[in-house]
Task: structure prediction
Amino acid sequence: MSNKMWGGRFSTGPDAIMEEINASIGFDQRLYAQDIAGSKAHAAMLAAQGIVSAEDVEKITQGLDTILSEIEAGRFTFRRDLEDIHMNVEQRLADLIGPSAGRLHTARSRNDQVATDFRLYVRDTVDALDAQIADLQLALAEKALAHAATVMPGFTHLQTAQPVTFGHHLMAYVEMLGRDRGRLQDARTRLNECPLGAAALAGTSFPIDREATARALGFDRPTANSLDSVSDRDFVLETLSAASICAVHLSRFAEEVVIWTSPSFGLIKLSDKFTTGSSIMPQKRNPDAAELVRAKAGRIMGALTGLLVVMKGLPLAYAKDMQEDKEGAFDAFSALSLVVAASAGMVRDLEPDAKRMKAAAGQGYSIATDLADWLVRGLGMPFREAHHVTGRIVALASSRNVPLERLSLEEMQSVDGRITKDVFGVLSVSKSVASRVSYGGTAPARVRAQARRWLKKLAPKEA
Ligand code: ARG
Result:
């Protein structure tokens, strides 16, 4: 039997493999709520414009509400022969209310319908992700405030560079996540235009009111060009780009958790809640959650790349290729949601080993810059000369196998006779971090101010 919705000129139904490759109901059933909301807005507009009678629209609306509750109660049978969510809903509507159902599709096409549904879906996703990322920022800022003065090694090239505080390190991620939220919001602002009424590609001859449907669905305005409305998926690409960048940020954090929990580093500990054991080595505690956060960035970026490649070179307007926009995006958005939740869980769970952190912070002559800065400030040396003198003092300490502060004043003076005992006032990791008071620096006072500023911003809004 040919398709009831579009089979007028067909004498037989599709081959089984045709049906299989063509159907999207297996995954686009996720769009049911958006699809029904879009249909209700469209139907109300058709009545208001006198295109369909108020009676018919009343029946259509009630039927759509019934379908929504059937789907939500798990009592709806999705049929593959009906291809997608749009035709499954419409067919069920016909079963429920009879021929009036056939009037719903007036002045509309599945092309503008699916573009509208997916924009609504992505908009909901952005809002949910925003709330989740804000919660992760909250977890980070709270931990940062508690550890604003906990000294740890700061790294460049993963080599001990200069002491920083653990709180400062965590706050770096709060900043990154703030920009991630900003990118998601930018995408949301641009996507919030309503394609409904673009119809198949050219617009419609019916006197529709696109402002009304846009408003009813919470869009800022209707899209301005009917061809563009049905043929672009840049709103998905933009959201996936923002999602990918966020996933990359979290993969870096996850990698640090992996490194820092490794016994060789031993800078932080995760509890049993966020580690797993080994089936052969009883002593092991593996940071699997962190590893999976690190790994899931791959599939999120994969979804972005996949859709970019699908869209590349597609002539306007709609082509069925675009049906491939959904699965990867659904997968990527749920992966990101899981990654953000797991990251927040790990942040709340993890505890630094303050003693080991402090000891590690002092290794590798990490306070050499403080010595050089003192030579500049205390003796008026040009920085380049101070750098050179410090290098010689470090070489001396290294040849004796002692840290800088364990050299005697005489030993220091053997390198440069102008050095005084005041130099010892800057030679400790705690003094080093306390001195980094420049705006954005790691001094505990600065870190506390940063954390408090964010905590105020992130505080749950009072109702
Ligand atoms: N399932 C389709 C999709 O996701 C809906 C649009 C179908 N349009 C069409 N002209 N066949 O893209």
